[in-house]
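Consider this today:
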Amino acid sequence: MHNILVLNGPNLNLLGTRQPEVYGHTTLKMIQDLCVAHGQSVGLTVTCAQSNHEGVLIDAIHDARGKQAGIVLNAGAFTHTSVALMDAISSAQVPAVEVHLSNIHAREAFRHKSFIAPVALGQICGFGAQGYVMALDALAVHLGDGVAG
């Protein structure tokens, strides 16, 4: 079984109550439970973390090197501002899939630019919590544990 880190960034701890018209009513705990359960069903061991602090997220990415086979990253607003997170993903050399609950390309113009996308395997956005499941499936396929369909 491969170890996967599901890493969530700023304000995602408020899911379920923060702008439900944009992000839905699903809480972060519900997403984390979904990720752990789905990971088990596809042969992945999932660990979840969240921080509102850029440096903590960078440390988690660095710590993943040699310990995690992949990262599912919802960097929240840092997606659009953080060259440091982009550099951390490149430096750690751990395959990452970028996830967003909302379709960032259908929102404000500043959200269309992602510093994560150029260093990620791919980007999944607009599918709510199901995007995390899609990201785990993508990593399972990438790592050779899943079936491309």
Remarks:
- Helices lie at 20-23, 28-41, 54-64, 83-92, 130-142.
- Residues 28-41 form the longest helix (14 residues).
- The chain has five helices and five strands.
